[in-house]
Amino acid sequence: MKICSWFLLLNSLLLCGIPALAQLPPVFDSTRMAAVQTTPTVRRYLSPEKIIWQTSNAGSSITNAARFLLQGNGQADLANQNMCVLKSTATEHPGLLFDFGKELHGGLQLVTGMYKSGKPVKLRVRFGESVSEAMSDIEPGKNATNDHAIRDMIVEVPWLGKLEVGNTGFRFVRIDLLDDNVELQLKEVRAIFVYRDLPYIGSFNCSDELLNRIWLTGAYTVHLNMQDYLWDGIKRDRLVWIGDMHPETSAISAVFGYNDVVPKSLDLSRDITPLPQYMNGMVSYSMWWVLIQRDWYQHTGNLAYLKEQAVYLKGLLDHLSGKIDTANSEDLQDGIRFLDWPSSENKAGIHAGLQAMMIMTLDAGAALSKVLNDAATVKKCEAAIARLKKNVPDASGSKQAAALLALSGLVPAEKINREILSVGGVKDYSTFYGYYMLQAKAKAGDYQGGLNDIRNYWGAMLKLGATTFWEDFNMEWLPNASRIDTLVQAGQKDIHGDYGAYCYKGFRHSLCHGWASGPTPWLTEHVLGISVVAPGCKVIRIVPHLGDLQFAEGTFPTPYGVIKVKHTRAANGKIQSVINAPAQVKVIRE
Predict the structure, then answer these.
(1) Which stretches make up the Alpha-L-rhamnosidase six-hairpin glycosidase domain (predicted)?
(2) Whole-number Å distance between alpha carbons of 420 and 397
C-alpha cells in the first residue's frame, strides 16, 4: 500500500518519543467519566523537503542551497562548513522558495554562519499555504494579507547566530536577501512545527487508499487546529467559532477521544457571551453549542462537566423556546442569521435551516435537561418542538438547509436525498455543511452515495496537492487549475489566488480549516459503523456499511479503552465482523 511521504513524516513525528499506543491508554477518572488528557503544545524542527524555486541569477548569487535539505541541529558553530552562501548586488537580490512537504503550524528558524561584514542582514520572509501565496505580495489584487497572523515580514538575522520568526499556518516559505552588496552565510532554514503531541487512538483503513488518505487528512486538519484553543484555521480565523467546531469535535471524538481543548473552548465562548447574546453573534452558533454539549456528553459521560453548564444551558433554552412566532416559525431576528458562507444569500434556505436547527437544538437540550433533572426545561423544549414541527419550510434549493431538514426529521431523509442532495452530485457542496449533507445521505440509507461524494469532493482537494482540507472548495474551480504545490504556469488558473468569496477571497482563503474535517467522523460512524448509544460510550452500536469496499477496519477511543473492529466482505457478499471492546463497553450488533 503506497502512502505519500508527508503521511509517513506525520506518523514518524507522532511516534517520535511516544510509546506504542497500547502503552498509552487514556487515564480513566471514574468520577468524571472522561479520559484526562492535558496536552500542551510542543515544538519540532523540520528541514524542507525540496527547494521549488530560486531567483534566475541563482548560479552566481546562491551556492550550495542543497545543504538546507539536510537534517539540522539548530546550532551555529565556528566550523563554518558546508554553508549556503547568498550574495547580492545593488540590483540583484537572491531568493529561494522552500517546500516543507505538508501543512504546518508554527514558524521558521534561521541559523547563520560567519561572513565578512559581521553585521545583521535583512531578509524578507513570506509564509504560504500554497506556492503562489508564498510568492505573493501584500496587495489587493489577490487579497494576500497579514490578517490574524503575520505571514509576510522583514527581519534581521544575526551574524553567527539564530533567529526564530513566525506564528502562522504554512507549507511553503520564501526568503529573499534584501540588503545591497552583502554576503550571507546560512547554515539552516527549518520549520518550527508547533502542535499538540497526541497519539491517533482512532484509526481507519479500508480497501480504498483514497478514503484512507481522506480520513487521515481530516484528522490532521483538526489536529493542527488544536492549539491553545480549538481554532477554525491556523493561518486565518485563529479563533473559537462555535458552529465551526462541531465537525472538529466530532473528529476529535473519533480520533483522539477526550481532549481538554474542547471543554476549554466551549467554556470560553460561554463565558464571553452573556445571555441573551448569541455566540459569535450568530443565532445558529449558540445552537451548535448545545449540540456539541450533547455529543460531548454522549462520548465522555462527564456529568460533572455537564452540571457546570446547567445555568447557562437553561437560560439559553428558555431564550430559544421563546423565539417562535404565531405561525410556529422560528423568529430568530435578534442576531446574525447564518448557516455557512455559500448559503448566505439564500434567505429562504437560511430560514428553513434555522427552523430545523431549532428542533435539533431543543431536542438535544431536552435530553441534557433530563440528565440534569430539570423537568421544567424538558417540558418547555418539548412544547416548543411540537409547535415548530407544525411548520415545514421549503429548502429553497439549498443543500445546507435540506440536510438540516432531513436530520431534524421535518422532511423524510429519502425525499431530501433524492430531490436535492443527490442532484448534480457534489455540486453546491461546502466544506463545512458537507458533513451534514453526508449525514443526511446516511440517514436516507445512501451510504454508497456518501462514499462517492467524499471521493469526488474531498478527494479533489488532495489531487490539487492539499495536505489539509480547505475553508471552502467548489468543483467549478477545477478546470485548468494549478496545484497548490507548483508554480502557476501561463494560462493556468491559480486555485488559491483566483478563487474564493465572502471572507475568503484569494489568498485570504484558509487551506487548513477544521470545519472541513467531516469525512473523518463520518467514515468512522458509518463505514466502521461505530455509534455511541449511552453516555460515556457505555453502550456502542456497530452496524457497518461497506458500500463498494471489500473491507474496512479501525479503532475508536472510549473512556474505557480502544474498540477495534474489522469488517470483511465474504464471497457470498455478506459482511463478517471481528469486534474487540473493553469489558465495560456493551456492544450492540445489528
Answers:
(1) 201-392
(2) 7
Give 549-565 as a DSSP string: -SEEEEEEEETTEEEEE
**Sequence ranges of the domains in the chain:** 44-196, 203-534
Distance CA 485, CA 130 (A): 6
Write the pLDDT tens digit of every residue in 436-452.
Answer: 999 999 999 999 999 99
pLDDT band for 417, please (50, 70, 90 cuts). very high
> 189: which strand partners?
110
Tell whether domain 203-534 is in CATH 1.50.10.10: yes
Residue 29 has pLDDT above 60, yes or no: no
d(CA 250, CA 523): 11
Q: Is the pLDDT of residue 15 over 90?
A: no
pLDDT class of 37 with cuts at 50, 70, 90 = low
For 518, the grid coordinates are 467531516
CATH class, 44-196 region: mainly beta
Beta strands across the sheet bearing 203-206: 203-206, 551-558, 561-569, 575-580
Look up residue 352 and give its DSSP letter: H
- pLDDT value at 23 more than 80: no
Q: At what angle do helices 310-321 and 283-300 cross, to 10 degrees?
A: 140
- What is the β-pairing status of strands 530-534 and 575-580? unpaired
| Cα-based distances in Å from 479 to 123, 132, 483 | 37, 18, 11
Q: Using H for helix, E for strand and C for coil, what is the string for 494-540?
A: CCCCCCCCHHHCHHHCCCCEHHHCCHHHHHHHHHCCEEEEEHHHCEE
Mean pLDDT, the chain, whole residue set: 93
Q: What is the 3-state secondary structure (H, E, C) of 44-78?
A: EEECCCEEEEECCCHHHHEECHHHHHCCCCCCCCC
Please say whether the beta carbons of 225 and 512 come within 8 A: yes
Phi, psi of 336 (to 5 degrees): -75, 125
Residue 41, classed as helix, strand or coil, is: strand
Per-residue cell: 528:
466502521
- Cis ω for the linkage preceding 276 (within 30 of 0): yes
Regarding beta strands 539-542 and 586-589, do their DSSP bridges make them parallel or antiparallel, or are they unpaired? parallel
Whole-angstrom CA distances from 162 to 47, 113, 165, 187, 583 are: 15, 9, 10, 10, 53
Angstrom distance (rounded) from CA 355 to CA 393: 8
Q: Which three cell numbers stand for residue 575?
A: 459482511
Asked if 170 and 511 count as a contact pair (C-beta separation under 8 A), the reply is no
pLDDT for 271 equals 98
Residue labelled with grid coordinates 539564530: 162
